[in-house]
Amino acid sequence: MLMGGRRRLCLAAALVLVVVCASATSGDAGVTSAYRRKAEATVDMPMDADVFRVPAGYNAPQQVHITLGDQMGTAMIVSWVTPNELGNNTVMYGTSPEKMEMRAVGTHTRYDYFNYTSGFIHHCTLKNLKHSTKYYYAMGFGHTVRTFWFTTPPKPGPDVPFKFGLIGDLGQTFDSNSTLSHYEENDCGAVLFVGDLSYADNYPLHDNNRWDTWARFTERSAAYQPWIWTAGNHELDYAPEIGEEKPFKPFTHRYPTPYRAAGSTEPFWYSVKIGSAHIVVLASYSAYGKYTPQWTWLHDELATRVDRTQTPWLIILMHSPWYNSNGYHYMEGETMRVSSSSGSSTPRSTSCSRDTNADAPVYVTIGDGGNIEGIADNFTEPQPGYSAFREASFGHATLDIKNGTHAYYAWHRNHDGAKVVADGVWLTNRHNMPTDDA
Ligand SMILES: *[C@@H]1O[C@H](CO)[C@@H](O)[C@H](O)[C@H]1NC(C)=O
Ligand SMILES: *[C@@H]1O[C@H](CO)[C@@H](O)[C@H](O)[C@H]1NC(C)=O
Ligand SMILES: *[C@@H]1O[C@H](CO)[C@@H](O)[C@H](O)[C@H]1NC(C)=O
Ligand SMILES: *[C@@H]1O[C@H](CO)[C@@H](O)[C@H](O)[C@H]1NC(C)=O
Ligand SMILES: *[C@@H]1O[C@H](CO)[C@@H](O)[C@H](O)[C@H]1NC(C)=O
Questions:
Q1: What distance in Å separates the CA atoms of residue 23 and residue 379, rounded to the nearest whole number?
Q2: pLDDT tens for residues 245-264?
Q3: Ligand 3 pocket residue status of 88, Cβ below 6 Å
Q4: Does residue 278 have an active-site annotation?
Q5: What does pTM read for this prediction?
Q6: How far apart (Å, rounded) are the C-alpha atoms in residues 19 and 8?
Q7: CB of 322 shorter than 6 A to ligand 1
């Protein structure tokens, strides 16, 4: 459904594409829950759903997922869980399934959460990979061996094409499953995930078995292409009432990020380069005021490490818009504020500035992978002039960077075939096309 009656796609210049995943803050929890009852119901898939099935075989590796292991795309972190015993930490890999002759030895971790104890969580970094190369990899030696594959991203450069998926607020409902299925029909090389993974915290005691089911569910994509993780509020798992006072405990044990390679001090903010894009991941739930470690890192990142001549596309991922923050100096003087909703759980709006200011970034809010909190369709009326398109539906987006000047952003609605694009817009890059004010 198209809310607001007006559909205005503007071809604003993309200096920076900011992707946020707006979500409910504690302050409007009441509004959200009242709203949830009214909205189209969306329920979690049951524990015995096919997508949660434990792979066959004693101690079989499960919940396999990969993410970039360095900034340049020549390393990949492979993560998996063994349920019964530690097992072998080794990943064997190579460019053909018959010749996985290279080896990397990982580390493992476990954690307790109230009365839950995780399986053996393995992380293993494969290094010195070649760009744009298909690798096969296997783990579980000694008991049950499973084999997967991925293609490394191309060498970063000013005109390198790359197609990204954009997913947020995925959860593990039936809608989440269709979002993932539709996403898989696109030929994307990586997912930019803007936070809120499993929604395990919606369960009593934050039932961490729901972190396990989520990782088994997403394995069918996340084992085969890197997912770039952003922490959302549903990753906090802060529950002092049950003695869980360390924020992000399940998330940090399960989902490593290449933050050290990016000069960061915490896993929640970091950057990677893929193709012609420099991707900065920011942490909405870590301190970001002036002179905090995150602020300092971002300041240095933008001042010294972002090189628009090499990576003209600058993509900022964050979970929650910092509307009330003026702590970040790159936001200072930004004349555009794009948002679609009244502050409750915002599903998504694709919004472009109609501001003629050439420095205005394109701002995309996406956050409707299928989470159980339901669809937020309570948009402000009338639709504000700055809002180009908004729709309350579940789905995902793709960002198809063609070269240093052109990228196509598309929104794919569930209940359509994945090939049906509900919203699409060409973005042009101001860095390379400073005079284009289409
Ligand atoms: C999830 O989607 C997959 C692929 O479309 C399908 O095979 C599976 O049966 C679905 N599972 C559920 C529980 O909807
Ligand atoms: C954890 O505690 C809850 C509530 O008392 C209980 O239902 C559940 O079975 C317990 N789980 C384990 C693994 O002991
Ligand atoms: C783990 O598996 C690898 C690959 O098969 C093997 O070379 C290595 O010896 C195994 N390690 C142990 C401790 O069994
Ligand atoms: C929609 O949002 C407005 C403004 O925040 C609020 O007053 C109204 O109650 C909301 N409606 C529903 C159905 O949630
Ligand atoms: C960049 O891609 C756009 C869209 O595909 C195309 O029209 C344009 O010619 C390309 N530019 C160059 C320099 O190839």
A1: 14
A2: 999 999 999 999 999 999 99
A3: yes
A4: no
A5: 0.84
A6: 19
A7: no
